[in-house]
Amino acid sequence: MGGIVSRDDFLWTYDEQPHTSRRRKIVKKYPHIKDLFGIDPSLKWVISAMVAVQIFFCWLLQDEDWLLVILMAYCCGGVINHALTLAIHDISHNTAFGQKRSLDNRLFGIFTNLPIGIPISVAFKKYHVEHHRYLGEDGLDTDVPTEFEAKFFNSAPLKFIWLILQVQPLFYGLRPLIIYNKLPNDLEILNFVVQIVFDLVILYFFGVKALFYLIFGTLIAMGIHPSAGHFISEHYVFTEGQETYSYYGPWNLCTFNVGYHMEHHDFPYVPSRNLPKLREIAAEYYSPLEQHQSWTWVLFSFVTDPKMGPYARHKRAASAPQVLEGRHILRQYWEGIFNYFAFPEIMKWISKSIIVNKSD
User: Fold this and answer.
1) Tens digits of per-residue pLDDT, 148-157?
2) Which residues contact 334 (CB under 8 A, 6 or more apart)?
3) Which residues lie closer than 8 Å to 297 by C-beta, 6 or more apart?
4) pLDDT in tens, 221-233
5) Which 8-state DSSP code applies to residue 167?
6) What is the pTM of this model?
7) Long-range contacts formed by 21-25: CB under 8 A, 24+ apart
8) Per the database record, which ranges form the Sphingolipid delta4-desaturase N-terminal domain (predicted)?
């Protein structure tokens, strides 16, 4: 405990990710498993209730003592907000309204984002797709730590600090900008504007303590917090040869079953509420695999075990180039508005006027 991490490189592998082949085997043996795909009809109601509860807590805490606000943020608000980030994860797979209503899913993700206090929903979606498609691939999967993180945070005290910093605005949020800096799309801008307006509304009506409750709860629950154990438990290599791990404990009740991570990567379009059914159907494929019993123990082991650290991840050579520009889903709407008010013609007229004036 406290020694230097023994690994000095990632676990480079030249095999395809295991989820692809296992998915084919399971579907071949249990074709009816496709019945689990689709929409979770309860998701939008559960999320709406969670958003309403957080706003209610903002009202309750506006004049309370700072100590109570901090304790509530860690024990209650942080748990709810962390759950909402995982609801965004579920929505990113279009499980709220289905594959044919992509825009509705993105807009609902922006709504789900509100109590979190920091705009993450749309940006998470565009990078999470790559995490599934190119698991562990260099420069494509931004869930894998950077070389700097792996080299610098190489002892127990530094790993502990690294866990604290695993919050959206820091390493977990900045990493995509370093590894795979995609250009922002129109929905990201909308996500940002809506979130800032919501934060200002909370600040105006309920005060700084209420806004602090929301944002501090988000940050603290993404670092040293039992609910954050899934960040480490999902893909950090605790057992040689196994790349993804599941956890079937009680934290799944308030994290939208994110612990069923092996099952989720095998079948990303199965809504989270159906993942236990998936495991039950294909139990012989999942029961023999190594699984985690406690997310708190995962965090403790990560810090104290010299074999563990940011280097303890499988990595592959990139199989595709980076695509920096994303799709502007709202393009047809704002282009229609611009054309309706003749903005293109106005801009042409202005540019011609400037050219004529310069020539004179």
Assistant:
1) 999 999 999 9
2) 186
3) none
4) 988 899 999 999 9
5) S
6) 0.88
7) 22/266, 22/285, 23/266, 23/267, 25/285
8) 5-43
